[in-house]
From TrEMBL:
Any GO molecular function: phosphoric diester hydrolase activity
Protein name: GP-PDE domain-containing protein
Pfam families from the UniProt entry: GDPD (PF03009)
Domain GP-PDE residues, every copy: 28-348
Length: 385
C-alpha cells in the first residue's frame, strides 16, 4: 500500500503547476468553519455554496471514514440526532438501523446516504438556513461541486477526525491518511489543501507520505496535556502531566519556553507542521467575550510571535464574536476560522486593510448546487430543535 501512496505522491508532484501553488495565499485567510455553520447547515454542499458566495479564502471541513472506506464530510464521530434524521433502512431488517446515534466508523456509505442532515436547525445557531433532505457528501462529491461552482483557486482546510483518547470510536490515523492521499492524488489538489488534525500522529504520517501537503496542528487546552484520572483533558489550570494522547506522544513540558504558549508551538514545530490552529478562548475562561471580566484567551500574542519566529502561521478557531475578531487582528494572526464568514467578511471590508478573496458568482454556484446536492426521498419539516 505504501508504494502506491508514494507513486501517487510522485505523480502529483510532477503534474502540479507551480503557478497555482497557494494562489489564494495573497488574501487574508477567512475560513468558513464547517462551511459556515452559523449561517447554513454544517458540512454540507449548501454550506460550502454560501461560503463561496460570501468570498471565503478557505472552505474548512471535517472528514469521517466509513466502515467500507469512504471519506464523508462530517464533523462528529457519530450521527448526531440534533442534526440528522433517519429516513429508512438500506434493507429490511438491517441490524444497524436506526443509523442516527451510530458511529461513522461502523456505518457503510449506503447507510450514511439514507440520512436527512438538512432539516434540523440547531438551537445554538438559530439563523441557520436549512436545506431539507440534504444528504452528507463524500470528499470527492464536495470537490466535484466546488469545481463546478468556481474557477477560483479556493483553498481547503480539511480535518481528519481521529479520536486520540478512544481509538475504537474512529478509524485509525493510518486509514485516514491513506484515504485522503488517494483522493488528493486523483484530483491533483495537493497545492490547495491543508491537512489539519487534533491527533498529531496523523500529521506526522501525512508529512512522511505526502511532504508537499501542508499540515495544521489543531489543539486546545483539553488536548495538550495527559488526561486527568476522570478521563477529562482538563484546561490551563487543571490538567494531567506527561505526554498527551493527542500529540503523537509529545509532552509539551519537555520543550523550552517560559509559557505554555511557547512550549506548545515548539512541539508543533517539532512535527514539521506548517501552521497551528489553536482555540481562541481557553477552557478555563469564565467569560466568552474579551470585553467581559474573567475572559482568558488561549491563543495570545506570545503564541503568535513564537509561531512566526519559527515560520509557522496561526489560524485560530472558532471566533464568533466581533470583539474576538478584533482581538485576533491585534495579536497578528494569519487567518480566522469562524461560523459566521459573512460577518467576518463585512468587518474586514469595513477595515479595508486586508486583501480579500473575490465573492462567488451566485447564479453559477446555485446552479451547481441544484445539480450536485443530493436529497433523501422524505424530508423533515424544517422546524429544527
Amino acid at each position: 500500500m505504501r508504494s502506491i501512496a508514494v507513486l501517487s505522491l510522485f505523480l502529483g508532484v510532477i503534474s502540479a503547476s507551480p503557478m497555482k501553488r497557494w494562489a489564494y495565499s495573497k488574501y487574508f485567510d477567512l475560513q468558513g468553519h464547517r462551511g459556515g455553520r452559523g449561517e447554513t447547515i454544517e458540512n454540507t454542499l449548501p454550506s460550502f455554496a454560501w461560503g463561496l458566495i460570501n468570498g471565503v479564502t478557505t472552505l474548512e471541513m471535517d472528514l469521517g471514514l466509513t466502515k467500507d472506506g469512504h471519506l464523508i464530510v462530517w464533523h462528529d464521530e457519530n450521527i448526531d440526532p440534533t442534526k440528522c434524521i433517519d429516513t429508512g433502512a438500506v434493507e429490511e431488517g438491517d441490524p444497524m438501523y436506526p443509523y442516527v446515534g451510530k458511529y461513522i466508523a461502523n456505518l457503510t456509505l449506503s447507510q450514511v446516504k439514507t440520512l436527512d442532515c438538512g432539516s434540523l436547525r440547531l438551537d445554538g445557531f438559530p439563523l441557520q438556513e436549512l436545506y431539507a433532505g440534504t444528504k452528507l457528501s463524500t470528499l470527492s462529491e464536495m470537490f466535484d461541486f466546488v469545481s463546478c461552482a468556481t474557477d477560483e483557486q479556493v483553498l481547503f482546510n480539511i480535518e481528519t477526525k481521529v479520536d486520540g483518547d478512544y481509538h475504537n470510536l474512529t478509524r485509525s490515523a493510518e486509514d485516514f491518511v491513506k484515504a485522503i492521499g488517494d483522493i488528493y492524488a486523483q484530483y491533483n489538489i495537493w497545492d490547495r489543501v491543508t491537512h489539519q488534525s487534533f491527533e498529531w500522529s496523523a500529521l506526522v504520517l501525512s508529512k512522511e507520505l505526502y511532504p508537499q501537503l501542508r499540515t495544521s496542528a489543531l489543539f486546545d487546552d483539553s488536548t495538550i496535556y495527559k488526561q486527568l484520572p476522570n478521563g477529562s483533558g482538563g484546561n490551563l489550570t487543571t490538567h494531567g502531566t506527561g505526554p498527551s494522547n493527542w500529540l503523537a506522544g509529545l509532552d509539551i513540558d519537555t520543550f523550552p519556553g517560559d509559557t505554555i504558549a511557547e512550549r506548545v508551538v515548539r512541539a508543533a514545530a517539532s512535527i514539521n507542521a506548517d501552521l497551528i490552529s489553536p482555540s481562541v478562548t481557553a477552557g478555563a475562561s469564565l467569560a466568552v467575550d474579551p470585553a467581559e471580566e474573567g475572559w482568558i484567551g488561549f491563543v495570545n500574542k506570545t503564541m503568535v510571535d513564537t509561531a512566526h519566529s519559527l515560520g509557522l502561521q496561526v489560524k485560530p478557531w472558532t471566533a464568533n464574536r466581533k470583539n474576538l475578531f478584533e482581538y485576533l487582528f491585534d495579536i497578528g494572526v494569519d487567518g480566522i476560522i469562524t461560523d459566521y464568514p459573512h460577518e467576518l467578511r463585512r468587518l474586514l471590508e469595513h477595515k479595508g486593510t486586508y486583501p480579500l478573496a473575490p465573492l462567488g458568482e451566485v447564479d453559477r454556484i446555485m446552479g451547481c448546487l441544484a445539480k450536485h446536492n443530493q436529497h433523501t426521498e422524505t424530508k423533515g419539516d424544517g422546524k429544527g430543535y
